[in-house]
């Protein structure tokens, strides 16, 4: 006897499983959100919902912590600079590897693939020594320059441009545009799905970066938010109410960015998953 699963029933089972997974995933975030409105005593007691709803935690980090807004500015400034530079350089490199013919093209592509296999932790000490020799420790350029290109997204953009219609570029060339003009005026405006997906992931990576700041930033005025949050943890007590409030302020920009660019994600997967 053969058994078969009706597609309609299977779809509902899948929806239920995804719903349960979503709830389980959201529980830690909801707990953190609830804890941000609780006094420290209720967090230690383990209550999920606040019995005494308070905004004192947010008032404390904004008004009583003089460096919190500076940390927020540092994180925004560094993440925006890293994202803009990556969008420009990764797109240019990906387009060159996909369309242009030059000596050593295959070699450089293999180098980029090799870089993908190197963990970031391996390059941390060389990065520190190079920044120290340039005098860039504890500086914005020390945080921005090492992260202004990304091998993963160079590869992603190459895949996108390989699948880009050549007919559009040929028509632009017939109209008298050179390679740079074709890239800037024709290709980039039509690459919004890949660029938007790239922007979200790069901004998120820079926004959440803790490893590089903890190595090269040593003055509190230069701290980013992930590093600044660590200052709420003392040797004998951790102010989890302040940490949770600051974490919510740290998380909300990423939610907004993801929601804004979400519609581009499926398009980017469609374009970048083609032939190599």
Automatic annotation (TrEMBL):
Domain of life: Bacteria
Chain ranges of the ABC transmembrane type-1 domain: 72-261
PROSITE patterns with a match to the protein in the record: ABC_TM1 (PS50928)
Main location per the UniProt record: membrane
UniProt keyword annotation of Transport present: yes
GO BP annotations, alphabetical order: transmembrane transport
Keywords: Cell membrane, Membrane, Transmembrane, Transmembrane helix, Transport
UniProt keyword Metal-binding, yes or no: no
Membrane topology reported for the UniProt record: Multi-pass membrane protein
CDD domains: TM_PBP2 (cd06261)
Location in the cell: Cell membrane
Gene3D superfamilies listed in its UniProt record: MetI-like
Transmembrane parts of this sequence: 12-33, 71-95, 107-131, 143-161, 182-204, 210-232, 239-261
Pfam families in UniProt: BPD_transp_1
Database matches in SUPFAM superfamilies: MetI-like
GO cellular component terms attached to this protein's record: plasma membrane
Family: Belongs to the binding-protein-dependent transport system permease family.
Protein name: Carbohydrate ABC transporter permease
Source organism of this protein record: Drouetiella hepatica Uher 2000/2452
